[in-house]
Amino acid sequence: MTTAAAAGQGRPPAPDGTAGAAEHAHTAAWIAAVLRGRIAAGQLTPGTKLSEQSLSGALGVSRNTLREAFSTLAGESMVTKIPNRGVFVASPGAEKVREIYRVRRMIEPAAALWGETSPEVLAGMEAIVGRAQEARDAGSVGRMADANQALHSAVVGLTGSESLRTLMDRILVEMRLVFHAMASAPDFHSHYVDRNVQLVERLRAGKREEAAAGLRSYLDGAEAELLGHLDAR
Q1: Which of 22, 63, 106, 134 lies 20 to 30 Å from 211 when distance is taken between CA atoms?
Q2: What 3-state class would DSSP assign to 181?
Q3: Phi and psi for 81 in degrees, rounded to 5?
């Protein structure tokens, strides 16, 4: 297992990528958001030990504040606390995968069916799937994963609901952890690129029911593939 060297040196940027605001730098919520963002970006991978000593120094916070952040992330299933061993980035198992897809099946097809679209939103989605196609052609698994997550975030964004956006952001962090389990199956993302293109085409054509049904089938297939891979391991 690696340590939390991925925390970087000095005070980190805020979760939105801007310079860290001093008024937030010592709050457990801000620290949790920083670590959550690094998990989502793949900088902290499953099984990584989060060293209190390293992180408290790198982030410039007390260990008590860091422990509060760990408790927040543990409640979100982002990290696992192991007595006498420490805190580790979670390695999601089969039941977590099932729960993730239960949530996604309830939210995403409904967003595709009833969400609000606009030419600007659809153009943004088309740009995302264009990046996914470029990443596939370049053989970049990481960029395909990034594009895949960006598209599904945009789908939920069609709802206009900040609460659902927040929930989906958390789900996407969990998905990033799950994707690491597919490292030995580098083609996992590639065969979903065309299905993402088809989804956007259906939304552009106003074929909402087809888009929702296709997305439901897409999610069923992805869940089955992930579970099959976990079983094989």
Answers
A1: 134
A2: coil
A3: -95, 125
